[in-house]
Design brief:
single chain; about 375 residues; alpha/beta; 13 helices
Length: about 375
Amino acid sequence: MRHIILIPAYKPEYKLVRLVEELMLYDFNDIIVVDDGSGEEYGDIFECAKDYGAVVVRHDRNLGKGEAIKTGIRAAVMRYDTEICVITADADGQHRPADIAWVSNALDCNPGTLVLGTRCFDGADVPKRSRFGNRMTSKVFKLMTGVDCADTQTGLRGIPASLIDLALETPGSRYEYEMNFLEAAAAEVRFTEVSIETVYEDGNKCSHFRPVRDSLRVYGRPIRFACASLASAAVDYGLFALLLMLAIPDHIIAVIIATVGARLVSGVVNFLLNRYFSFKSRGAIGDEAVKYGTLFIIQMIFSAWLTAFVSVIIGTTVGAKLIVDTLLFVASYVIQRRCIFVPARKSRQFEVKVIGEDKEEVRTDDRKRRKTGHAKATHAA
């Protein structure tokens, strides 16, 4: 099995060149570096990486880490005829060659698993934002997938051959891509975690992670799901009040009709919001509607039964409903993410067009990318 080292880079320092040089000393001869639109002033750094044996793939503008990883994987698939696995590493000096070698060895010893280089965040030199962010995302990941992952934000990952297609299909262009890929991989394979050295030089000042904007991207899907739930609840309450106003006040039949009617309409709204907004599914809408309807009915039954049961224990119906609805919210997210709104798998199709003696254009059949005019990627051997 050929192991490919993939290093996405945006405005890197000469640490990138040193990393490539040291990886060569570890007998890693297949290294792909992706210049994610760094600009001409960084050209010398990438030329030096080429001089040490790396293949450099370029975006003509910054598309984000997720796109850089996918571009690098495409280049690897087209370049090598044999079956490959890919080891992603960061360009900022956080990943030592010895640790990259550990991840490579773990891929061989644990075939078919996703290998993660896991850092320890208890050291005094670890920035507080990094410690808090990683602990938070690990808890969210555990809550949403049921899988323990001590370092969800690690950029050092060993992707086996069985997950190459999934890595290319996973949505996300920037930092959210890594979390999306972890979620998708958790449903298919087990994780192997390898302890690596925790390196934060100069407070990690060379990181391009933007705490607010990129954190919103990382938590994008749960946030969109929560927004969809709030919007559906507003429709439920508003329509219930409207129907009750048009009926005979306080009449039991009117209350039942208003409740059922409002709940059915809000359920349809929630289904459509989750399909097109929260999960952006490409599956068959009929199948998803049947599955969602089944979950919708079961959730209503459980909500009523569990609220009554818990209220007896804690002595308050309002508190019981809050607890039950929170648990059902999490359960509903997990079920919809893993069982209902599952992205359709696409076949891998690439095209190579020679545009110069030492350059090739990396293109896919992705209609959305062509439509939005994403930048071309070229690679120089």
